[in-house]
Amino acid sequence: xxxxxxxxxxxxxxxxxxxxxxxxxxxxxxxxxxxxxxxxxxxxxxxxxxxxxxxxxxxxxxxxxxxxxxxxxxxxxxxxxxxxxxxxxxxxxxxxxxxxxxxxxxxxxxxxxxxxxxxxxxxxxxxxxxxxxxxxxxxxxxxxxxxxxxxxxxxxxxxxxxxxxxxxxxxxxxxxxxxxxxxxxx
Length: 186
Fold this sequence. Notes:
The chain is an all-alpha fold. The chain is built from 7 helices and no strands.
């Protein structure tokens, strides 16, 4: 008889599990890390709830560097201190580092071949689809909050359509989001 599985998210049991979890994200996520990070940490390994994943990701988007790389450092630190940060970061970037070196040498040889150009275009399209799918998953927790949806839509219009710099949008959006959260609107 199997032991009952815990109801809520459970952090990794040790540094080995942390390394292998982030290694699996890095191995599957070449060029589109966010969808796989969500899948591994929330759906497969159940290290985080969807809400906690969104909160950590939001924090990490403000830090310089790659978002999921920042998440690896933040979560590794949360669970295992400095050693966890290092292990999670190395797990995430070990395989992509090797693959980039190998692909760069192959690409240099075959760059002018039409099939290579077609493959690169197809991979870019697939990455865009993964990004859109993950964005929809990340919106689920706020889908029931009209004020939050309005704020997200306003930021999207300002940055994505009107091409207003993020440096001007954030100082306005952050206090509004904080106020909405404090009043229970978002």
